[in-house]
Design goal:
alpha+beta; 7-stranded mixed sheet
Length: 184
Amino acid sequence: MKWVLLVVLALSFQTVSCRPGKPSVLGQEMRRLGVRSALLVASQAIDEHPVWSADGRFIAVNVEGQWKKVDLTSIQLAPATWHKTQAVGVANPPARMSSIREAKVREWEKSARFEPRKVVTRDGTTVELRQEELGTAFVIERKGGPSETLWTTGMENCYGLALAPDDRSVAYVCEQNGIVVTAL
């Protein structure tokens, strides 16, 4: 019975992937923990939306005016709770980051898909960070299906949706926490 439950849990979570069909280390870590979201960079000093590299191996993050490249190929996650009840992974030890030139980030942006509040995947799935009074709701609407609200914040603004190159996940900023990636 335990094995059946584990298989069902493993199949119910999408994974973050660098290449189609091959889960990344981040995706493997999220699957290992049985979580759909991961806090990659814990910081209240994020200045812009995250930017994925074309191969999905890195995410560029602007922290206090300095662009940093987060290496998703060596990330390790620890279990945590977010918004009081949601299980998430948290980079532990902190994600490995290195400096990246702004010109390289702008080059990545040319092939990236990002919007402040709403993005649409190639298959028509809509992902939205919907403002609700002083908080934010994370809403997924699959083409022809019902909408799903993963979480709602009370007083936190989340914004800057950036689709992964393979459309399997999205990165974004939550002002009181940092950069989060959620599997779709």
